What does this fold into?
Amino acid sequence: MKTFTTNPLKLRLSTSLFLIGVILGAALAHAQTCFTASDMDEPTRTALVSTAKRYFDMAARGDSAGLRQNSIPSVASDFSGIETVIKDNQANLSGAPATPRSPFLLKVEGTAPIARAEFLCGVFGKVGQTSDSAVFEIPNLQPGSYGIVTLDVPTAKQTYAVSFVLQQDGKDWKVGGFYVKETKIAGHDGSWFAEHARAFKAKGQNHNAWLYYLEARDLLVPVSFMYTQITDKLGDEAETVKPADLPGGGKTVDLAAGGKTYHVTAMFPVVVKQDLDLVVKYQSPDVSNTTQTFQDNTAVMKALVAKYPELRDAFDGIVARAVEPSGRDYGSLLPMKDIK
It folds into this structure.
């Protein structure tokens, strides 16, 4: 197993989750099981927490080599992503206290990977999740035992959620995934973004509302493949404002600017320093001519704000990224005040 990746913008409905659990529960019970901290035996619970704290200390010291030696083979063989996360965050984590949350233990039985493993953790009610439940959705998961441990790490400038996915290897727990997430943007947490999403909705600014719901959801869980009662509720709310004219799920949106038509493939919020900017990606045949691509990026930003003027109320700037078929891209950032 390598580090888990899922769509960070995905929202789900609690009603859908409940139906999935009812319909598939009997069939999946033998293959996918989740244990909360209260369900685990004490040695397992202690091992998960102590291992995560030990690995956190390595990351805080910048000990990439040590973490790599304690990783499962598929992660150790392609460790560059985790190494970058360690380098980017080592100064912030060094010397900071780390308080572990209650761990989760996930078990997958069988002999073959599961295309989409879904783990229902804790107690569920008649309409879905409760305040004590959680759901993890992980693609292409191999049979085995996995622990998920998150540590809250407050610093003078920011609070971080540092999460480890641990895979059992004999008596040891090895690193299968490592995530560091800021829990606030410019001092604002997920609840703040949810409140402002509702305010945008009340003003009929559904594009802003949708994008702020996405940011709220992202900030309220330590890893993107985790879902809670709160995030399911946000999913329900977000579906009521989801615009039909935004790209996503393989659908592109055409944007006319300067006599050209640009095919927009994605739009999502991003943090640049302490600003909340909006990324817009679009298709480009070639980005090697950076002067021309910069002009195209600028045209796309201007056209985007002209089409959706409400974006000025929600974002500090726009990041336009031209992406060619090879995947190579070229990006430009303009503050919102400079987009005219």
User: Anything to note?
Assistant: The two ends are 48 Å apart (CA to CA). Residues 253-338 form one domain. Residues 1-30 have pLDDT under 50 and may be disordered.
